[in-house]
Amino acid sequence: MMAYITEQNGVFPSVCSLDCPDQCGLLVHKENGRIVRIDGDPEHPVTQGAICNKVRNMTERIYDKNRLQYPLKRVGPKGSGQFERITWDEAISTITAEWKRLIEEEGPEAILPYSFYGNMGRIGTEGMGRRLFNRIGASKLIYSICEAAGTEGYGYTMGGSYGTDPEETVHAKLHIMWGINAVSTNMHQVAISEKARKQGAKVVVIDVHRNRTAKWADWFIPVLPGTDAALALGVMHILFAEGYTDEAFMTEFTVGHEQLREHVKSYTPELVSSITGVPVEDIYKLARMYGEAESAFIRIGNGPQHHDNGGMTTRAIACLPALTGQWLKSGGGAIKGNGGYLMINKPALERPDLRAQGGAQEINMNLLGIALMEPQGQKLSSLYVFNANPAVVAPNATKVREGLAREDLFTVVHDLFLTETATYADIVLPATSNFENTDLYLSYWHHYVHLQQPVAAPYGESKSNSDVFRLLAEGMGYEEEALRDSDEAMIVQSLNNPNNRNIASITLEGLKEHGSIKADVKPLFPGRLRTPSGRIELYSAQMERKGFPPMPTYTPLVDDGPYPFLFIPTANHNFLNSTFSNNEKHVKLEKTPKLHMNRADAAVLRIEDGDAIKVWNDRGDCELTAAVGDDVLSGVVVMQGLWADGKDGKALVNALTPDRVADMGKGATFFSGRVQVAKI
Ligand SMILES: Nc1nc2c(c(=O)[nH]1)N[C@H]1C(S)=C(S)[C@@H](COP(=O)(O)OP(=O)(O)OC[C@H]3O[C@@H](n4cnc5c(=O)[nH]c(N)nc54)[C@H](O)[C@@H]3O)O[C@H]1N2
Ligand SMILES: Nc1nc2c(c(=O)[nH]1)N[C@H]1C(S)=C(S)[C@@H](COP(=O)(O)OP(=O)(O)OC[C@H]3O[C@@H](n4cnc5c(=O)[nH]c(N)nc54)[C@H](O)[C@@H]3O)O[C@H]1N2
Ligand code: SF4
Ligand SMILES: [Mo]
After folding, report:
1. pLDDT tens across 184-234, in order?
2. What spacing in Å lies between the alpha carbon of 113 and ligand 4's midpoint?
3. Measuring CA to CA, which residue among 600, 599, 580 is closest to residue 590?
């Protein structure tokens, strides 16, 4: 397998490492040892040769002049970006000496690893790093920044992250994109839905913004932010009232449909319209379309979920397919996330047994600023950041940066670039790109498992996450075998999951031969779900025990203060979270950070299209360019993209976002903040 690295010229199989549901099969073209082009793999059944613009321009990023090549130590104030080159030996000995001192003087929970899925490779994210920090006995991070609220909510209804096979959705006759900007964030679902559309299917988009996906749809339904549960309940009201429900399906496969029938009587179309801003006749039209569709598929995105009520909203939407028996129809059902099907052996990979004390304090990654500035438990004195850029992506960024600026916080950042977070580090370590590593990739949307074998040599002195953790374990003087396992050994351990038959026949050898393999996923129905009852839980006793309403219920957003606009800072087309926001080509394609606002609101504030504007609340402020029109409802403003420090360092949207947690999963509430806007 070293062959891929040593070959100077040729085309090599690869997989996209980005945190994107599509997880594309790639072909990497090399000339004279350098990657010169990246294409979609035409043989990959889901990718079918098509990839996004972001990754077609990936070579610009891997050979960007600013890519880190050497370890660095800080020589100026935190945040200033002044660093000096050091050797790996010095870097590792500085970090381990400081950690040994902290463990001795303050205890191991003074150390917090902070990571996410900047590279989705499971070995690099969940392997040696988790093992090392378990062995240390460090504070535990709760990985709640992305899908946590919705995953918990969907799970109450469906028993886990199990939905429709996206390849089957080509047969669905109605495709509802519910709070997902799929044209930008799940382009192969759009390709499949488009194919279905050519065979007569209809596409409906329910969103707060007439974005690229809304413009592609047959019908765009604008909804007020955070009100989707009410809309779903209104649709249920009509489905029951007008006899569209599939009684046989509900009787056999659900719990609580009789209670639900009673429960939704109060969600009249008139009431739902007053909550959601959707006209009464459109609620009827949507419900009848759904009820009459031969088969209907709902793709549930982050929109409903990144709110105070995100868990319950996702649960409510997830109930809909059961009412009309969609789960037995070709291509019908829903996808929130399909991660459950490809579940690997997490304990074998992460080795929680290496933790001498068992438990440790848990730090919610959405509350990093609070954890650093107003600790509830043990004070944090060291932070190790990899695969993540919290100074840009975490909510309440002002507080996060105050925390990162603490002189008594020893911070290490491992990344490919000197990110905004890295500018606060004491030690910066250069990371290899995914193309330089061995790793295992599991999509959370389609059913394929991929292997990445290194296709290029490490850039400069960069090292993979696993390699750095192995060095740190050695430097700490730890002798456990598990801290020396190779990446391939960890792949073998992960794939051996007796609790998941879907991946039983997938082996490292098989992956080496084929690159990717589709898991052997059986249809969900007929079958037993992983809910307590084994059925779809329209009524959830489990939720009731936890203090939630047992039925899907609309709960309004939390009062976020006296500011007139709900502020929705979402993903954009050419970045991936903050990744690419520092790469010239991608920034150029995205042009400027804009705030979309309604014409009527702009007129009152005397703001015109293209004006420089200030957006603020109690948490912070940022400067953007006004995009005035009819793409958002009055009272709503939408911004796209995590612009890092953006134009002149002033487009940091997370300076404004709340660090409250959602109703479920300790999830993020990026979209539930309020702001004021004014012309500069
Ligand atoms: N190009 C690109 N692709 C990406 C990413 C990226 O940054 N850029 N990020 C990746 C990651 S990590 C993830 S998790 C996914 C996220 O992908 P998506 O699920 O598409 O998430 P967002 O774009 O954040 O938000 C989805 C949509 O929800 C809408 N919305 C906001 N609030 C509400 C609401 O209350 N109700 C409704 N109905 N809609 C609402 C927004 O306008 C937006 O169109 O995409 C992945 N793919
Ligand atoms: N306002 C607002 N904030 C959001 C969101 C939103 O919609 N709105 N979306 C949220 C969501 S859904 C998510 S998932 C989070 C994502 O938040 P993050 O996971 O922090 O995502 P990125 O900003 O892409 O940062 C990933 C970093 O990992 C680095 N990296 C890539 N590969 C490797 C590697 O192999 N090793 C190491 N050590 N580093 C590597 C990249 O260079 C990059 O700097 O952001 C959240 N923040
Ligand atoms: S970011 Fe998504 S669409 Fe683009 S290449 Fe990667 S997996 Fe495919
Ligand atoms: Mo995400």
Report:
1. 999 999 999 999 999 999 999 999 999 999 999 999 999 999 999 999 999
2. 19
3. 580
Residue 347 near residue 311, CB atoms below 8 Å: no
Give distance in angstroms: CA of 668 to centre of ligand 4. Answer: 10
586 Cα: distance to centroid of ligand 3 (angstroms): 14
Q: Rounded CA gap, 87 and 70, in Å?
A: 7
Crossing angle of helices 128-136 and 465-475, in 10° steps, is 30
Query: Under a CB-based contact definition with an 8 Å cutoff, are residues 204 and 216 in contact?
Result: no
Q: What is the CATH number of domain 565-679?
A: 2.40.40.20
Neighbour-count burial for 635-647, b at 16+ CB within 10 Å, e otherwise: bbbbbbbbbbbbe
Q: Is the CB of 28 under 6 A from ligand 3?
A: no
Let me know: does 460 contact 416? Beta carbons within 8 Å: no
Element spanning 215, H or E: helix 212-216
Q: Is the pLDDT of residue 111 over 70?
A: yes
Average pLDDT, the chain: 97
Helix orientation angle between 280-292 and 269-276, rounded to the nearest 10 degrees:
110
Whole-number Å distance between alpha carbons of 340 and 151:
10
Which amino acid residue places its CA nearest to atom 6 of ligand 3? 16
Ligand 1, atom 17, lies closest to the CA of 185
Residues of the chain with CATH 3.40.50.740: 72-146+361-518
Find the 574 Cα to ligand 2 centroid distance in Å. 14
How far is Cα 172 from Cα 330, in angstroms, rounded to an integer?
6
Ligand 1: residues whose CB is within 6 Å? Answer: 19-20, 146, 178-181, 184-185, 206-209, 211, 223, 225-226, 228, 301-304, 307, 568, 570-573, 575-577, 638, 671
Q: Is the CB of 465 under 6 A from ligand 2?
A: yes
- Minimum CA distance residue for ligand 3 atom 3: 52
From 23, 48, 52, 62, mutation site for ligand 3 pocket: most ligand atoms within 8 A of C-beta: 52
In order of 124, 144, 610, the CA distances from 18 in angstroms are 13, 18, 32
Phi, psi at 439, each rounded to 5° = -160, 165
Q: CATH code for 4-62?
A: 3.30.200.210
Domain with CATH 3.40.228.10 in the chain: 149-336
Name the class of domain 149-336. Answer: alpha beta
Q: Which CATH class is domain 72-146+361-518?
A: alpha beta
- CB of 61 within 6 A of ligand 2: the answer is no
**CATH 2.40.40.20-classified regions of the chain:** 565-679
Rounded Cα distance between 193 and 204, Å, is 11
Q: Which residues, 6 or more positions from 572, have their beta carbon under 8 angstroms from its beta carbon?
A: 184, 590, 640, 641, 642
CB atoms < 10 A from the CB of 513, how many? 10
| Contact 23 CB / ligand 3 (< 6 Å) | yes
Is the CB–ligand 2 distance for residue 548 below 6 Å? no
Cα(279)–Cα(209) distance, integer angstroms: 17
Q: Which residues surround ligand 4, an ion (CB under 5 A)?
A: 146
Of the pLDDT bands very low, low, confident and very high (cuts 50, 70, 90), residue 3 is confident
Rg of the Cα atoms in the chain: 25
Judged against a pLDDT cut of 70, whether residue 1 lies above it is answered with: no
Contact 614, 680 (CB under 8 A): yes
Q: How far apart are CA 262 and CA 224, in angstroms?
A: 26
CB contact at 8 A, 55 and 16: yes
Ligand 2 atom closest to Cα of residue 653:
1
What's the CA-to-centroid distance between 386 and ligand 2, angstroms?
10
> Quick one: pLDDT at residue 648?
61
Give the model confidence (pLDDT) of 347-400 as tens digits.
Answer: 999 999 999 987 899 999 999 999 999 999 999 999 999 999 999 999 999 999
